[in-house]
Protein: Electron transfer flavoprotein subunit beta
Amino acid sequence: MSLKIVVCVKYVPDATGDRRFAEDLTTDREAVDGLLSELDEYAVEQALRIAEDADDAEVTVVTVGPEDANDALRKALSMGADKAVHVEDDDLHGTDVMGTSLVLAKAIEHTGYDLVICGMASTDGSMGVLPALLAERLGAAQVTLLSEVSLADGRVTGRRDGDAATERLEAALPAVVSVTDQSGEARYPSFKGIMAAKKKPVESLDLEDLGIEAEEVGLAGARTEVTSATERPARTAGEVVTDEGEGGKLLAAFLAERKFI
Ligand SMILES: Cc1cc2nc3c(=O)[nH]c(=O)nc-3n(C[C@H](O)[C@H](O)[C@H](O)COP(=O)(O)OP(=O)(O)OC[C@H]3O[C@@H](n4cnc5c(N)ncnc54)[C@H](O)[C@@H]3O)c2cc1C
Structure:
């Protein structure tokens, strides 16, 4: 029977753009271009490597996000994933991590899975907690923050590098893992991959398809609330220290004045 691998990929605002909150203090996803979260490219890469080593495997990428999140799915498909699932619904606006994990869990149950692979954190919300919530909702084993991952005989094995120790972890499938940016360089999509991705299936689902009520998600269902947001002050021009023999002293005085030394 085919090994079913599902990769959770998030479409995030480009960090090089001018990111802002909207008036209702949710992330303004319209104002800046988005892209596949870089950290999720590592998750796609590990899924593809595991699939390549398996006799028979299928990689599905899933996202919960606005219409443009399709770009993130296409990138993952062009890297080599087989198919995609896009959950999109106007009622998702303002959904927090609890709601997102609910929607993803339902979408993954709908797709079917043996192994779910996530990134270590998104590059916008960066809570790093979604994989754990997902494992709990799915009733699957949770093996997170892996810098090395492999699969054999129905068990997923990995290495987690901490500050004080390196742990080796193992769990029977079904399992949810998250991988770090140390897990292995993500491949670039080839021209052939980009062309092939255009023909790969993308299934669109909304809340009704997943049996989720609007009140369970969105701002109404959110358990967290952004109460205020203050813009970071604009950068100032800075101060140039010219070295005319006293450069070191001037630099030290500059740092001392600002309590850096
Ligand atoms: C239209 C929309 C509006 C939203 N509005 C808000 C809001 O107003 N306030 C709020 O708190 N949150 C909002 N969210 C949810 C938020 O953007 C995050 O998806 C969610 O809170 C997860 O938190 P994180 O990104 O910090 O996840 P992390 O825990 O940092 O993510 C870890 C991993 O989980 C997976 N993952 C995370 N998010 C997704 C996703 N959406 N799709 C697929 N995989 C994912 C990725 O593999 C990622 O690497 C909204 C989401 C959507 C789609």
In short: The first strand starts at residue 3 and ends at 8. The helical segments are 38-53, 70-79, 97-111, 130-138, 191-197, 218-221, 247-257.
